[in-house]
Amino acid sequence: MTDLPKQPLSPERARKLKEAVRQRQPNLTVILENVYDRHNIAAVVRSAESIGIGEIFILYTERNVEEVEMSKRSSAGSRKWVDIHLYNDADACFKHIRSKYKRIIATHLGEKAESIYSLDLTDSTALLFGNEHVGLSERALQEADANMIIPQAGMTQSLNISVASAVTLYEAYRQRMEKGYYSSNPLLNETEQAELYDYYVARSRVKGYNLYIKMTEDR
């Protein structure tokens, strides 16, 4: 954890934060490749945080991007509770992801693509979403262990990236809730929860987390 100074919270705020920490899902994340729309990025971050995801990855392979601005309206403070790793180097990005998550599932209409409702999303997983218009690059697809689709019944067989991620994430939420990951069977032990709580308490007092995602020295 980053060494940030501790700050006090009100009793109600502390209670709410402890409950959020207890329900964190450390073995689930999101990867966005070449997603440039700041409203979509912010919406994905908000959906991810709402189901207990603590970090996501943003990868740009088409051009170097050193800083990303999120929509303030769409993020609504969720940026403060989600660590965002920004990469331009695909090899470095996927190496980081592979060090923490067992498999990568991509949104791709391949012949072996499975419905999100038939996939087990309770195991350690990174969900990979591509560009709003052209989808995922060949480089990203090389990393996929499986492909997923969202079943649709209408004439327009596509969803906005923020909608697609929300639908997928809440299917993961449903499956994980059935296993008690949000209640009787949390994925973080008491020591890990205490460490994460201290980190979030300190982070809640630090300005500058809401809008900007920057490359950091270790990337």
Q: How would you sum up this structure, described in words?
A:
With 219 residues, the chain is of the alpha/beta class. It has one domain: SPOUT methyltransferase, trefoil knot domain (Alpha/beta knot), CATH 3.40.1280.10. 34% of the residues lie in helices and 17% in strands. It has helices at residues 11-22, 38-50, 72-75, 90-98, 138-142, 161-178, 190-203, and strands at 28-33, 55-59, 67-69, 83-87, 103-107, 114-115, 125-129, 146-149, 212-214. The strands form two sheets. The protein has a seven-stranded parallel beta sheet, sandwiched between helices. A two-stranded antiparallel sheet has the order 3-9. Strand 1, helix 2 (38-50) and strand 2 form a beta-alpha-beta unit. Helix 1 (11-22) packs across helix 7 (190-203). It is globular, with a radius of gyration of 17 Å. The chain starts with 10 loop residues before the first helix and ends in a 5-residue tail after the last strand.
